[in-house]
Each structure stands twice: as C-alpha cells, then as structure tokens.
Write a structure and sequence with these properties.
Helix content is 0%, strand content 38%. It has no helices and twelve strands.
C-alpha cells in the first residue's frame, strides 16, 4: 500500500487467518502500511531467522508514530519468532488497534520441527498445530 500522508491508500477490511510469513523483508516500517477499519488477524505465524532489524507487521499509513485504530474485528492467537534481540510487534508502537486485541506471542525458539525454505514446506511442533498455513 502507498504510504503517503495525503494519498488515500488504506483498505477498509483485512482478513488474515492461518498465514505463515517466512523471512519477509523488514525495514522497521511494517509489512502492511495503511488505514484499516476492520481487522481479523488470527492464528498467523511471523518467522524471521534472517533479520537484523525490529519487526512490525502493521503500520498506520503515512505516520510511523501514530497507532493504527481499527473500529471492528478480532486480533488473537498469533505467534512469532525472530532471531536476535529485536522486538516483534503486530502494530506500530506496540499500541493495539482494537480494545481487546492480543499482542503477538513472541517465541523463544522456532515453532518448526522442520523447515525447507527453498520449497516453503514445514512441519510445526505439536504445540503449534492450528497456527499458520496448512498446505496438503
């Protein structure tokens, strides 16, 4: 999404369920930059073992210091792993976009029993079944 202050580049609604992000490019700005009024963000995995920066998934369009304020939805049951001593936040400034939004659960170890990045295939550890994408 365009990140300009004056460009109406936001989206009205986002549903992001059971998705796995492997080693996305992070520059501390956010994977999704925009105005989102309805957010359903559940059971996702954010994984970065190639990173040397903090990770933010959602950032308000055009203003890195402002918090993203959705008016409806649910944000729950998301997990993440990042290598090194960097922060991992779902939203800019670690300010929840909804009143009852849950922060991402930052893991101390990889959620994968095995991971082949060249094919994008993996096996989750038993305790993380139900998170991320299931491709059969």
């Amino acid at each position: 999404m365009n990140n300009g202050n004056t460009t109406n580049a936001g989206i009205g609604s986002l549903v992001l369920r059971n998705t796995t992000f492997l080693n996305m490019h992070y520059a501390g700005y956010g994977i999704v930059n925009g105005d989102i009024s309805t957010m359903i963000v559940k059971n996702n995995i954010i994984y970065a073992d190639n990173n040397n920066n903090n990770v933010t998934v959602f950032r308000k369009r055009g203003n890195s210091s402002a918090s993203l304020q959705a008016t409806d939805g649910e944000v729950a049951d998301n997990i993440g792993y990042i290598i090194g001593d960097f922060y991992l936040n779902l939203w800019q400034g670690d300010t929840p976009p909804l009143e009852n939004a849950e922060k991402i659960q930052k893991l101390d170890a990889s959620p994968f029993e095995s991971l082949d990045k060249s094919t994008g295939t993996y096996v989750l550890k038993p305790e993380y079944q139900g998170y991320g994408a299931t491709i059969e």
